[in-house]
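Postdoc handover notes: sequence design on the structure in folder B. Input tokens:
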């Protein structure tokens, strides 16, 4: 990791450091993100509800139209790369906003692990924190419950 570059990270100062430490905390706590099935289920439900509401409100006839709309909406690397990456994982790589992994990276466990790390990184950035609450409020609340339990 390049610490100097991370200080001036276009995703926010030290975003990579906090993200990778989120993975470390998850691992050291015994894999909270994967063990807690509710966390993954909430992520999936919030993504599905978001897409369904979008299809209804925008009168899209195809799922792909909703996915393209989300991609266009999630275009600001500074504020939305974490949320974009989570949508990417939850859609098995079909939604590619400003942040994503290669499609074959994603498994349900990796979705949970990456979401956990992104939510940890958001704890240290007010702008990204609000974006996480906007798109994944229930999942984010569950993450904070899991994190609080890990600290006890």
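Designed sequence:
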């Amino acid at each position: 990791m390049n610490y100097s570059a991370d200080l001036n990270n276009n995703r926010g100062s030290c975003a990579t450091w906090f993200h990778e430490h989120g993975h470390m905390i998850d691992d050291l706590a015994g894999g909270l993100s994967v063990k807690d099935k509710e966390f993954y289920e909430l992520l999936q439900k919030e993504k599905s509800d978001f897409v369904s509401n979008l299809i209804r409100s925008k009168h899209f006839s195809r799922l792909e139209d909703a996915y393209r709309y989300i991609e266009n909406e999630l275009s600001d690397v500074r504020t939305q790369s974490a949320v974009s990456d989570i949508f990417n994982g939850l859609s098995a790589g079909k939604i590619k906003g400003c942040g994503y992994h290669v499609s074959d990276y994603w498994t349900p466990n990796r979705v949970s692990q990456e979401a956990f790390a992104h939510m940890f990184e958001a704890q240290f950035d007010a702008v990204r924190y609000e974006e996480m609450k906007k798109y994944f409020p229930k999942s984010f609340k569950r993450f904070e419950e899991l994190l609080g339990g890990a600290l006890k």
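Context for whoever picks this up: The radius of gyration is 15 Å. Don't rerun without checking with the PI first.
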